[in-house]
Design brief:
Layout lengths: L4 E5 L4 H12 L3 E6 L2 H11 L5 E5 L7 H12 L3 E6 L14 H29 L2 E6 L12 H20 L5 E6 L7 H5 L13 H13 L4 E2 L3 H11 L3 H17 L13
Parallel strand pairs: 1-2, 1-4, 2-3, 4-5, 5-6, 6-7
The structure holds NADP nicotinamide-adenine-dinucleotide phosphate.
């Protein structure tokens, strides 16, 4: 019998790479996507004893990216049982210091691509009465984060969309899950200013991926991996918004005092 297929975006590194491994270990064939083809090839080779891996190189930070991916999947002719919208990037620094190209790429990748892929792949899942969507949000989905304003807002969008979707999909046989990790050791974190401060609280990408997989399989709507992260999310939920805003603004201004305005260390394309 054919194995179910999981499509994982952003599988060339970090949490997406670990998610690919966890899905493969749990009986899935894979379609993996990202920009770095060489990395995807290495992953496919590593996982070849476990499953078949199809590679689709696509830049989801570009307007054409999602349709390139959807067209490639249609050509493959494999029904996608699980869509993992993991690809994402961050832009750190005061909002007014971000470059125009950063703003455009972040909105396209974190919001538009995730929405378009979900929209395009859902009808087949609903027709088959079977499917799962795992959207990678963040603990920052729950609060404003000055200094990471656009990233946090994009992740609030992902959480809100996923929660609404989970209700809209009731009775269809399809589920939607938001995975909300806290700071996790990946390339992305090494690109964000002052993230070294989160060192002792950093999660391991493999553990985050395993939790995400379990939550997705159980059809849970929301999963925050790790006790520290759960405590932080709970704290912010029960405080007045002004207080959360005040403390995060204070922390951002302190941490950016030493950093020249407009100087960002993240790796988005110009
Ligand atoms: N690390 C954390 O602390 C943390 C915390 C909460 C949530 N998250 C979320 O977890 C997800 C994965 O992040 P990560 O930490 O694993 O980051 P990462 O190690 O930097 O990996 C990001 C992945 O996204 C892909 N990607 C980036 N830009 C892309 C583009 N324009 N088109 C297609 N793919 C692109 C990258 O592949 P290519 O570069 O090869 O394209 C890579 O595979 C993101 O949604 C992130 O927001 C991360």
């Amino acid at each position: 019998m054919a194995k179910p297929v999981a499509l994982i975006t952003g599988a060339s590194a970090g949490i997406g790479y670990e998610l690919a491994k966890v899905f493969a270990e749990n009986g899935y064939d894979l379609v993996v996507s990202a920009r770095r083809e060489e990395r995807l090839r290495q992953l496919a080779e590593e996982l070849s004893p476990l499953c078949s891996v199809d590679i689709v190189v696509a830049d989801l930070g570009k307007a054409r990216g999602p349709s390139t991916l959807v067209e490639a999947i249609t050509k493959l002719g494999k029904p996608i049982e699980v869509l993992v919208n993991n690809a994402g990037s961050a832009a750190s620094g005061p909002f007014q210091s971000l470059k125009r190209s950063q703003v455009k790429t972040l909105l396209q990748l974190n919001i538009r691509a995730l929405t378009e892929l979900t929209y395009e792949l859902l009808p087949d899942m609903i027709a088959r009465k079977s499917g799962k969507i795992l959207n990678v949000a963040s603990v920052v989905s729950f609060q404003p984060v000055p200094g990471l304003s656009l990233y946090a807002a994009s992740k609030a969008f992902v959480l809100s969309l996923t929660e609404s979707l989970s209700e809209d999909l009731k009775g269809t046989g399809v589920t939607a899950t938001a995975l909300c990790p806290g700071p996790t050791r990946t390339e992305m974190v090494s690109d964000i200013q002052n993230m070294e401060l989160a060192g002792p609280f950093m999660s391991d990408a493999r553990q985050v991926a395993q939790e995400g997989f379990r939550a997705c399989m159980n059809g849970e709507v929301l999963r925050v991996p790790g006790l520290m992260n759960q405590a932080m999310v709970a704290w912010t939920q029960y405080q007045p918004r002004w207080l959360v805003r005040f403390f995060s603004g204070l922390a951002a201004r302190n941490s950016f005092n030493s950093v020249k305005m407009g100087e960002t260390k993240q790796s988005m394309a110009e």
